[in-house]
Amino acid sequence: MLSRMADNTTFLEQGIRAALYALADTASRANLHLKPKTITKSLKRRCMAEMKVIAVLIRRLIMLMALSIQLAPLKPRTSKPAPKIEGAEDVTASFGPQPSGFSLAPPKAGPPIRCLNGVYVVPKRSVDAAPVIARLVALIRILKNPEPHAKRLARTIQRWQAKGEARPHVVPMAGRHRLDPELGLVASLLPQLLNEALKGWADTS
Question: Distance between CA atoms of 149 and 151, rounded to whole angstroms?
Answer without folding.
Answer: 5
